[in-house]
Amino acid sequence: MFSVPGLLVVAATAVIATLACALALVAGSAWPLSLLSGVAAGAATLSVLSRLLDDGHRLRP
After folding, report:
1. What is the DSSP letter of 55?
2. pLDDT tens string 8-58
3. Which of 8, 15, 33, 56 has a C-alpha 20 to 30 A away from that of 42?
């Protein structure tokens, strides 16, 4: 079903989105703003990690 790199990307995205949301809540922002910051961090992570794991960006010997 899932490849290992794909599963790692999804797991890392979920962890970073959760951390960003929690840090925003701890800093005292309102919960809608915290959710938006978590979603933004997750989207950025998903974008960067999927590009890094793409076949075109691997180092060739």
Report:
1. G
2. 888 999 999 999 999 999 999 999 999 999 999 999 998 888 887 776 555
3. 56
Sign of CA dihedral 36, 38, 40, 42: negative
User: How far is residue 11's CA from residue 41's CA, in Å, rounded to a whole number?
Assistant: 13
Burial class (CB in 10 A: 0-12, 13-18, 19+), 38: buried
| Contact (Cβ atoms closer than 8 angstroms) between residue 42 and residue 13 | yes
Q: State whether the Cα torsion 15-19-20-22 is positive or negative.
A: positive
Region of 3 on the Ramachandran plot (φ > 0 left; ψ -120 to 50 alpha; else beta)? beta
